[in-house]
Design brief:
The chain contains twelve helices and ten strands. It is mostly helical. The protein has two domains: 157 residues, Lysozyme (Orthogonal Bundle), CATH 1.10.530; 165 residues, no CATH class.
């Protein structure tokens, strides 16, 4: 049995952690805690994360995360990293759903392994995290693109962990609230403004947005007076878009609206009909079934709102949006039900970062 090269192991933890939204340092710390990053067996517990066969079998195949391992693959270290990263992400989502906040590293560990609670767990986990902290940045620099920020290091087991990427320039975790959903972690990238700001509706900054969940900041002026609001997740941006329609445009009073009225609002007060028609014609072309000026959309109709959102968001970005339908539905439904979760908190210690029109 070959010794594990810790630098290679760390690179795979970064690769798999970022891919599924699990903190890579958490993966390294848990492996250090449970096996000191060694292969082998400890009774029923197998491999670098010391998983039981039953724990492995529950997650080794998962369509949503593109996992397709066999029960016999439990001994393979790279396979264990991929599967355990997904196990941690699922535990994170379960904790977030029940507690409406991010877990600490210790809480996430106990969510995965409830029987692991001991009087020395905090101290032991901190020792493991400290022993692996120096592996994170070199691994990230070897694996991540220049525009991706290095994942945050965990300095204390009581520190909250987020399923996403910390950007120290904005002091924000950028993430998705939907399992495996798209998000941008770099609002200063060269992507379309509505994409890189997690603001699919392309909403310009205004006072009401500054109190919205997930509000981060806004971009600079694009030369046409547009300063696009930045959100920490696309789902928060989608929820803000729903609020724009329901509360700011007052469509919530009747519960429905015609496409011509929405286009007039998007074009702005006093806009010529030619500008209004640009929105109507684009939304018609991009929607399925096609929406016309006379089409009526109900704010309570998830399918109708999804159809409109796909068309409107694609128009704003100039390209098909990389969002999952589940992300759009999540933002709409949680805003409607007033059940949006709280944004993840930034880490205690910051780490160095790697490297449309608007409406309101």
């Amino acid at each position: 049995m070959a010794d594990i090269v810790r630098s290679n192991f760390a690179e795979e933890c970064v690769r798999q952690g970022v891919s599924c939204g699990t903190n890579p340092h958490y993966l390294l710390g848990v492996a250090q805690l449970r096996s000191k990053i060694t292969e082998g067996r400890d009774g029923e517990r197998i491999g670098v994360f010391r998983l039981t066969q039953g724990e492995w079998n529950l997650t080794c195949t998962d369509i949503a995360f593109d996992l397709d391992f066999l029960p016999s693959d439990i001994d393979d270290t790279d396979s264990q990293i991929a599967v355990f990263a997904v196990m941690a992400r699922k535990a994170f989502d379960a904790f977030l759903t029940t507690r409406n906040r991010n877990p600490s590293a210790k809480e996430l560990y106990l969510q995965q392994f409830p029987a692991a609670a001991t009087q020395t767990l905090s101290a032991d986990f901190k020792t493991a995290l400290d022993a692996t902290a120096a592996l994170v940045d070199p691994a990230a620099e070897a694996v991540l693109d220049d525009v991706q920020a290095n994942p945050p290091k965990i300095t204390d087991p009581e520190q909250q962990v987020g399923a996403g990427v910390f950007n120290p320039i904005f002091n924000t975790f950028f993430t998705s609230l939907v399992q495996g959903g798209f998000f941008s972690s770099n609002p200063n990238s060269n992507q379309a403004r509505s994409v890189r700001t997690n603001n699919p509706g392309g909403i310009n900054i205004s006072e009401w947005q500054k109190t919205r969940p997930g509000f981060v900041n806004h971009t600079g002026d694009d030369g046409q007076g547009n300063k696009t609001t930045i959100y920490s997740t696309p789902e928060y941006g989608i929820a803000a878009w729903y609020h724009l329609l329901a509360a700011i445009y007052n469509f919530g009073e009747s519960g429905s609206f015609q496409i011509r009225d929405l286009a007039q609002n998007y074009a702005g007060p006093g806009a010529p009909q030619s500008k209004v028609d640009v929105y109507i014609n684009s939304w018609h072309r991009l929607s399925n079934p096609p929406l016309s000026a006379d089409s009526t959309v109900s704010l309570s109709d998830d399918d109708g709102m999804l159809n409109l959102a796909r068309a409107l968001f694609t128009h704003e970005s100039g390209h098909p949006m990389p969002l999952k339908d589940e992300q759009i539905r999540f933002g709409i439904q949680r805003e409607r039900n007033n059940s949006l979760p709280s944004p993840p908190a930034p880490p205690a210690v910051q780490v160095a970062a790697g490297g449309g029109s608007g409406h309101g």
